[in-house]
Amino acid sequence: MFGTLNYKKQKIIIIVAFLLIPLALLATFTYYPAIKLIYYSFTNWDGYSPEKPWVGLDNYREVFSNSDIFKVFEHNFAYFVMGLVQNIVAIYFAVVLNSKLKGRYFFRILLFLPYIMNGVAVAFMFGFVFDTTNGSLNLLLHSLGIHSDVSWLGKEGLVNYSLASTGLWRFMGYNMVIYIASLQAIPSDIYEAAKIDGANSAQTLWRITLPNMKPVIGLNLFLTVTGALEVFDLPFVLTKGGPAGASQTYVMRVIDTAFAYNNYGLASAMSIILLLFVIVVVGLQQLVLGRGGKN
C-alpha cells in the first residue's frame, strides 16, 4: 500500500493515524461532555428523567440573582492566600536547595514526599492534627506553654485557613521541584558576570533569578488560582462544609445542587460560570504579568 505513495503522502497518513485515536478520545471524554454540559445548563433536568424541559437563561439568572451562591467564593479566598504563601515558601526552598548545600537531595525528597500522598489520606491525617481535644497541634501549643484549646475546624473565621494550610504542606514540595528545574535552566555565566560586577545575593535574586523564573512563576500562579477556585476534597472530607456552611466551597455547592437537590440544570450553569470565572481571572493574571515584564 505505502509502496505506491510518495514520502509526503506516507508522512501525512502516519501522522493522521497516530493522531486519530487521541483526538477521538479527546472528543469523546472532553468536548462532547462539555457540549452536553452547556446544553443541560439551559434545561431544568433532574438528572434521571428522560424529559429535559428547556428554560433558556433562567438558570443563569438564578445564579446571578442568588447572593448565597456567590458568597461561597469568599471561602475560596483563604486557599488563594495560602497558595501565594506556598509559592513564596517554595521559591525560598528552591533557591536554598539549588545551592551546594550538604544533604540537599535528602531535603528535596523530604519536602516532595507529601505531594505523592493520597488527598483523602492527607485529609484524615490532618483531622487528627486539628482535633480540638486530642489533636497534635493543640498538644504542641500546650507543650510550648500556650494553654488554649483552639477549635481549628470549628470557627468560621479560622476553618478555611486551617484547611488551606493543609494544601500548603502537601503541594509546596511539588512547586519547589518545578522552581528548582527552572533555576537549573538559568545559565551560570549570568551569575558569574553578576558576581564580577559586585552584585550581592539580594540583587542577584531580584535582578537575575526571579526575572528568569517568571514564566514558571506564572505557570504555578495559574495552578494556584485554578486550584483555589476548584478546591473540593479537603473541606468535603474534614468538615462537610461546616460549621454552618462556613467552609463550603463553590464546587461543593455545585455538587450539592446536582446530587442532593437533583437540579442538574442549575448545577451545569454554575459549572459554566465557574469556567468563565477561571478564564477571566487567569486572563487578568496574564495581563498583569505581561505588563510587569514590559516594564
From TrEMBL:
Subcellular location: Cell membrane
Xref: InterPro entries: ABC_transporter_permease, MetI-like, MetI-like_sf
UniProt main location, coarse: membrane
A Pfam family assignment: BPD_transp_1
GO terms (BP aspect): transmembrane transport
All residue ranges annotated as the ABC transmembrane type-1 domain in the record: 76-285
Transmembrane segments: 12-32, 77-97, 109-130, 216-238, 258-284
Top-level lineage group: Bacteria
SUPFAM superfamilies reported in the protein's UniProt record: MetI-like
GO annotation, cellular component aspect: plasma membrane
Bilayer disposition of the protein: Multi-pass membrane protein
Keywords: Cell membrane, Membrane, Transmembrane, Transmembrane helix, Transport
Family: Belongs to the binding-protein-dependent transport system permease family.
Full protein name: Sugar ABC transporter permease
Naturally occurring in which organism (per UniProt): Paenibacillus spiritus
